[in-house]
Amino acid sequence: MKLYNQMALAISFIIITILASVMAVSYQSTKKDMLQSVYEASVNNIATLAHTLASAQGDEVIMMSSVDAAFDSGYYKSIEFRSSDGEFVYKQEDSEQIESVPAWFVKFADVANTPISEDVLVGWESIGKVSIVGDTAIVYKSLYKSFVRLLYLFAIFTVISLALFAVMLFYILKPLKEIQKQAEAIMRDEFVYQEKIPYTTEFKEVVKGMNQMVKKVEYIFIKGSEALKRNQELLYIDPITELYNRRYLLLKLPDLIALENRANGGTLVFLGLGGAEILNQSLGHANADKVFQRLGSVLQRVAESFDDGVAARVNGTEFIIVLPNCEAQKSLEVAKEIHTKYELILKKYELLSEEITLDIGLYRYRPNMDVSELLTKADNALTHAKADEYSSIYVYEERDDENAMGKEQWREIIEESIEKKQIGLKFWSVLDTRSRKISHNVMSFTIDNGAHKEYFYGDFIAPAINLGLVSKIYKLALDTLLTNKHSQLGDKLCSIRLSNEFIKDPYSYETLSFLLKEKAKELPFKLSFELSDNFVVKNPILVGNFIKLFKETGCEFGINAFTGDSEDFSYLKVYNPRFIKADVSFLLDQSQDSMGALRVITDSLGLEIIATSVRTSEELEQLRGMGIYSVQGPITDEITKSITE
Fold it and tell me: 93: helix, coil or strand?
């Protein structure tokens, strides 16, 4: 029970008890005073009645008349005369119910009036004894009126007291609600300050302490972010051109050409500078470096003109630009523009392009290619460019396989699968190597064409994106996950990687919102969604809307393909994902300082680091040495199988 409710109940009980006690005391006091008044009146009246009866000189008729007259006056409940010899007894008693007083109150009040007796004397001789009981009807009536009045006052004062108390308690405990919000935010690993310090001393000290703690954690996060950025620059940035280096390119290429991110592939531009020795001899190393810097600036601007474009210096005289979703013709125009600007640089330093050459090989790649194959074919394109005596630019574009299905064939298969709900779900495990238990599952899906021909995600996702069917096919997969039972999931987290193209689809948000609001909260397992790190950084508004939807519907959120190349890691603080997933090659490539800085960031935010694409036990041991125990990849199937056996 909340503190407010506990205090409200306790003080309400005290207030009600005090008011009820006051009411009871007032009631008893009124009752006592009334009974005393009736008793005193009865004492005064019995002497007069005894004298009247004595005057009758034993005449029974006169005595009866005297008793009747006294009884009719209405001051008595009963009058009884009993002669000394016991032969004459006369009694009058009122047995009627008291008017305007309910029976329950008569029973509750229980007014007991003491009988009063006195001898009737004629001279010095007693002829009998008269006994009277005062009329209590007036006492009941007065008490009932007082009781009702006290009850009304009790109700009014109780309501007013409780209302005033509620208002006072609200304002007194208002700072506590802010403290509670701050504490809940801290538990969610969010940095929240209380700008308004409470007046109450105890609350003031608590708020100051929590603010100080948040500042310290945020300071650790900031320092960790700065250290990670510095270390990433040392690891992955060429110091002369400030382009990425070969090390970074090899880590980044798999994500850049991933099928779920780039359905149409792109172009890899491979540039080779010839005559570097002449350049150094003519200008000296310092000015030669300036030429490289200017060329690097040109290449960087080209890369930035494409979404997720990357420019890298792979060695002293060779450069690569990755241009996702860039067709061959467009890349040829880009290459010519680079060449023109390169010649202007040489002209500035009075150098000849015939002596210091720039050859450019262009390779139009398919999505999901092997990285080594991609670089080999790009290198072949550069070799052709160098060998061509008429042009320094060569375009190499592979044509689609003649046996590959066309656009309309894929449309028919995908639309039929959607219509007939021919979809299958696949689940891959994320393993905690410490407990050797599955921590959560990652969902993928397949389709078939109704002829028992199964197509995997990598087969159909590119055509689905190109045909504008990605939102529909994800909707079917999610609907299947949310509607059917999946015993293999148990109560664990189930994570779904959303492709960049799905997030960009204008219908995806509405589709996902409808499904989650209708079904997500009733699931026996926890649902999580993954977005790629680079996409999250570059699309804050779009991603922010989806993350808000995830949190509103009780779903988790994680980041995959993390490469730590952001200029500012505060987005992790803002979005507060549950985990980040990074390729094992990226994690193992980190220096000790860089990994330490990354751990500072994740620990300050309570993030779990999950290594993906883990294949060998050697990689697993290296990860364990770095304090990373959650893994995903082929190794998890081997470990899970060995456990079950």
Answer: strand
Instruction: Please check whether residues 388 and 411 belong to one and the same domain.
Output: no
CATH number at residue 137: 3.30.450
Give yes or no for residue 188 having a pLDDT over 70: no
Count of residues in the chain: 645
| b/e code 437-454 from CB counts within 10 Å (16+ = b) | ebbbbbbbbbbbbeeeee
pLDDT at 371 over 60: yes
- Write the pLDDT tens digit of every residue in 249-282: 988 888 787 755 555 678 999 999 988 888 888 8
Nearest to 587 by CA among 623, 616, 615, 620: 623
What residues pair up with 560 in beta bridges, in sequence order?
532
* pLDDT score for 259: 56
pLDDT for position 404: 58
pTM above 0.90, yes or no: no
- CA dihedral (479, 482, 485, 487) in degrees, to 10, reads 120
Apex CA 260: angle with CA 255 and CA 265, to 5°?
70
Which range of 81-90, 111-120, 506-515 scores highest in mean pLDDT? It is 506-515
For residue 259, what is the domain's CATH number? Answer: 3.30.70.270
The pairing of strands 579-583 and 608-612 is parallel
- How high is the pLDDT of residue 64? 84
Of 375, 397, 419, the domain-final residue = 397
CA torsion sign, 608 to 609 to 612 to 614?
negative
Mean pLDDT of the chain: 83
CA distances from 444 to 3, 389, 526 (A): 46, 50, 16
Euclidean distance between CA atoms 200 and 196, whole angstroms: 12
Give the DSSP letter string of 569-600.
Answer: THHHHHH--SEEEEEHHHHHHS-HHHHHHHHH
**CA of residue 357 relative to chain centroid, distance:** 57
Q: Which residues pair with 444 in a beta bridge?
A: 426
Task: Give the domain CATH number at 541.
Answer: 3.20.20.450
Between the CA of residue 93 and those of 24, 50, 63, 336, 458, what are the distances in Å?
32, 18, 16, 128, 107
* Whether 98 contacts 106, CB under 8 Å: yes
Q: Are 417 and 449 in contact (CB under 8 A)?
A: yes
Task: With residue 606 as reference, give the H or E element that holds it.
Answer: none
Residues 6+ apart with CB under 8 A from 135: 38, 74, 75, 76, 77, 94
